[in-house]
Specification:
CATH class of the largest domain in chain A: Mainly Alpha
Low-confidence stretches of chain A: none
CATH superfamily of the largest domain in chain A: Dehydroquinate synthase-like - alpha domain
Structural class of chain A: alpha/beta
Oligomer: homodimer
Number of domains of chain A: 2
Order of helices and strands of chain A: EHEHEHEHHEEEEHHHHHHHHH
Strand content of chain A: 5-15%
Largest interface: A-B, 41 and 41 residues
Shape of chain A: globular
CATH architecture of the largest domain in chain A: Up-down Bundle
């Protein structure tokens, strides 16, 4: 196991009806900006619950944060913050709203000249407005972690700072019952691949981390498809198990002290940037190809994954691994996700474009051992055809 | 799954050499009291590492905190705190030193008349001196949780307060290489049974919590005995996996949203209080008897435990459960722990004494459903003969 430092201070209020917890979480004298997206929270009752919980607070609102939150949109919040002397942000939404709120919080107290430098020049974020979260879509883990991704002019850029870790997060699985099948599919698969990025590398004898990761993977494999089936999609336990898995998938715990990959994400980002494909749907295409092309380097962990997550015991090691990859693809398909570039109508001719984008963005040595050169990325994309 | 709130703010620095992290964790202008036990840290190099890390701090020391830390001992620290205007406590030791330091921290800022009321009358602890921890014995989880147990005149009483949660904890597995076999055995089995108290209850469909618990149990079953064997006891990975498991076992995570038992602990406490038996050695005697006597109420979870933790697939459900209990006992024996009252030279005549102690302490309805009356506790102790 590698040495590591780990912390996660976010207070979690989990379960049906927990939105009421924000009343006591946010100081009564705070001036609150409620940040949300396209307005779906006004149709599913979440907005009303938030309004009710904030009835003794002074609050204002800022809506319109889009998927892959846009810099220009987020900067419009700064005027509202100044006008009303906002000193607390409440993000109500999924990963994009939370990520966007993190950028708003950092930009509000940014000491430099141009807030875009936070992502463009990775200028350190020393302070930020305090953030609370009411999560509506389990997927990204942003509700308790320190990361955020912001988009401007087709550039999708991340930043990280402990200053933007939410002070609290409300996780009410009942809120997720109104999500579309596509949102559920994307969320489950996004969380699944967050786990794989921190698990499917090489063995450092981190037994707790491995078993926690395997437990989360098994839970998503079991519960994910149930959230799409008519007979079980309204089951609150199913939603609760998915929601808790997605938070645990990227709160820092399973990645502490072990190697991490993230090549699937880096290659997937180019598919989103170039063709506007949903983030999770790029991952379900790239991961199986990474598993196949990187089979030798990842042999030990792939075998462990086959045996522990899929309980495969028959056949040679190579056969067990092949079977595990096949079952992973079938799981993605059960989640109604694409698993090949052809599933989203891309072909051989697109690979050159994607490789040049990777090169442009400096993604020339990806993966847990920086062995995924552009040539290997090409192999991966060809494998994914 | 039940609704829950979860938080754990303790920053963890994990790995060999991490004691140096305390230099930056404790404010330079703090006046630090280093709290430790019988002085073993002076023989194993830990004291020297702490002194070196604190070379630019003003610090004092308070030693002599005993196992089952004693109120009178802990109160002696108050004079030192006043004399030197101490404003930061650094606990260097195992669970007893950490628990004792938590009481010292709470007593120092206690607003009431008598600090003993913190445990005797469960008076709320609103504030406490900040605490840091250098852990030397993985077992109790006290290094990141809010609990503490203090003893006075044979009364072993707990208190809990978020104010005493350590701000940071250094977990250096190399520090544990100098522990005696008995300390290792006690620590591994204590952690194991902390997990069982939060796992072996009834099913609430908390899939993440169950799988995390099972992963920790499997890790302790695999790694615990290795820490006693000549050929593997110096293996740092073994120590690291045990240490991380013990912290995760009682940091609040696996117990969030699920039922909890704790009857084994309550019955075990009377064995410690009456006969001075090591805490963990009471647990290894009581747990198997609880599993047998409560087999019907715990059927579902016992079967899951048999199948997932011990991979038992053959035989009837009852046979699988019986086999799992037998394997649990054999694991405790491999850890050189007693599993019967007769192993510690207690017999039938002691049961009346223990039952009267349970009655005296109000322990008349134990377990996840408060179904363990004194009559059931008697059955459990008879089963343990």
């Amino acid at each position: 196991m590698f040495n590591f430092s780990f912390e996660n201070q976010t207070r979690i209020h989990f379960g049906e009806g927990q939105i009421t917890a924000i009343t006591n979480e946010i100081p009564t004298d705070a001036k609150v900006l409620v940040v949300y997206g396209g307005g779906s929270i006004k149709n599913n009752g979440v907005y009303d619950q938030v309004v009710s919980a904030l009835q003794d607070h002074r609050w204002f609102e800022f809506s319109g944060v889009e998927p892959n939150p846009n810099y220009d949109t987020l900067m419009k919040a700064q005027a509202v913050i100044k006008e009303h002397a906002i000193d607390y942000l409440l993000a109500v939404g999924g990963g994009s709203v939370v990520d966007g709120t993190k950028f708003i919080a950092a930009a509000a107290l940014f000491a430099g000249d141009d807030p875009w430098d936070i992502v463009a020049k990775q200028q350190k974020v020393e302070s930020a407005l305090p953030i609370g979260v009411v999560l509506t879509l389990p997927a990204t883990g942003s509700e308790t972690n320190i990361g955020s991704v912001v988009t401007r002019d087709g550039h999708k850029l991340p930043f990280m700072s402990p200053a933007v870790r939410p002070q609290f997060a409300v996780l009410d699985p009942a809120v997720t019952l109104s999500l579309s099948d596509r949102q559920i599919s994307n969320g489950v698969v996004d969380a699944f691949i967050h786990i794989m990025e921190q698990y499917l590398t090489y063995d450092v004898n981190g037994k707790v981390q491995d078993r926690f990761a395997e437990g989360l993977l098994q839970t998503l494999i079991e519960e994910g498809p149930k959230a799409l089936l008519a007979e079980s999609k309204d089951n609150l336990d199913v939603r609760a198990n998915i929601m808790w898995s997605a938070t645990m998938a990227l709160n820092g715990l399973i990645g502490a002290g072990v190697a991490q990959d993230w090549s699937t994400h880096m290659i997937g980002h180019e598919l989103t940037g170039t063709y506007g494909i949903d983030h999770a749907r790029t991952l379900s295409i790239v991961l199986p190809a990474v598993m196949k092309v990187r089979q030798e380097a990842k042999h030990g962990k792939l075998l462990q994954y086959a045996q522990r997550v899929w309980h495969i015991t028959q056949g040679s090691e190579e056969q067990q691994i092949a079977q595990a990859i096949k079952l992973t693809e079938e799981f993605f398909q059960r989640m109604a996700m694409p698993i090949r570039l052809s599933d989203i109508e891309l072909g051989k001719s697109d690979i050159d474009i994607l490789i040049s984008k990777l090169e442009l963005h400096g993604m020339v040595a990806l993966g847990e051992k920086q062995q995924i050169t552009l040539a290997v990325s090409r192999q991966i994309l060809e494998q994914a055809l």
